[in-house]
């Protein structure tokens, strides 16, 4: 092994011990699982030149890099497309026949989410900060959408106008929400009972019942239409990206929760949410996931449904 290879191996192990500390079996197995994915990702040539240095940049950057490696591992049976320069444009490129499918990856930080939630005390009752978590989802998706499309005021060009992505290519935003967990426990679903990603782009709110005042009978039930949230600055944040034609270049959201905990038997759930108005949709059953959601406008009502997977 060369000196450079030994140094790279040492740095990875050092970072893993820093961000996944402990001598217990759980920590050891998680470090081993992530270490394998990181080394494979680096050796594959899919990582950019700054990948290993970013591992040491911050907690968020460490998990952003881990996200890239773990997602690439999940795509190991796909054909990765050739690209002119790795490090420019979206993170990964896979092929669906002759069509390019770009995967842009993000790992949102737990900004404005309570420490009681993030550092769970199992004997302490806490609130479910679903709106704070949903705001992180919405912000992460919007930021990566702007990377493709550019800023609405035209001050910054996106990947399409800069020529890094063709207007006929598919574009998937992969959100790894592992930093939004409650302690060890992944939280994939929001207050609606559907994935946070569904709430973030299809305006799905909490479940509601309509009750007849005279008979007290339930005459209708379903989800609220929630077109926006109010953030900590008291500004409105839209949750209707897939209803806005500006975001038609987004093919789908790939919602994940990956931190290596599958190595210790904790399920790392994932979902695909298809954009019903996508210019370049991806087919169902194309990406590896646990569940997929589609939306159809029917009689002025948006119907969101989970479609069956082949193994279900």
Furnish the topology, listing elements before pairings.
Layout: H1 3-19, H2 25-44, H3 51-55, H4 59-74, E1 79-80, E2 92-96, E3 99-106, H5 115-118, H6 130-149, E4 170-176, H7 196-202, E5 204-211, E6 218-225, E7 228-230, E8 236-238, E9 252-256, E10 270-274, E11 291-298, E12 301-307
Parallel strand pairs: 3-4, 4-9, 10-11
Antiparallel strand pairs: 1-2, 2-3, 5-6, 7-8, 9-10, 11-12
**DSSP strand tally:** 12
Strand content: 15-25%
Structural class: alpha/beta
- Label the overall shape: globular
Q: Report low-confidence residues grouped into runs of 5 or more.
A: 1-10
What characterizes the major β-sheet? 8 strands, mixed
Radius of gyration: 20 Å
**Cα-to-Cα separation, first versus last residue:** 45 Å
Mean pLDDT: 88
| Assembly classification | single chain
Q: Give the SSE order as H and E letters.
A: HHHHEEEHHEHEEEEEEEE
How would you describe the overall organization of this protein?
This protein is of the alpha/beta class and 312 residues long. It folds into two domains: 1-65, no CATH class; 75-307, no CATH class. 29% of the residues lie in helices and 22% in strands. The protein contains seven helices and twelve strands. The protein has helices at residues 3-19, 25-44, 51-55, 59-74, 115-118, 130-149, 196-202; strands spanning 79-80, 92-96, 99-106, 170-176, 204-211, 218-225, 228-230, 236-238, 252-256, 270-274, 291-298, 301-307. An eight-stranded mixed beta sheet has the order 1-2-3-4-9-10-11-12. Strands 5-6 form a two-stranded antiparallel sheet. Strands 7-8 form a two-stranded antiparallel ribbon. The longest helix has 20 residues, at 25-44.
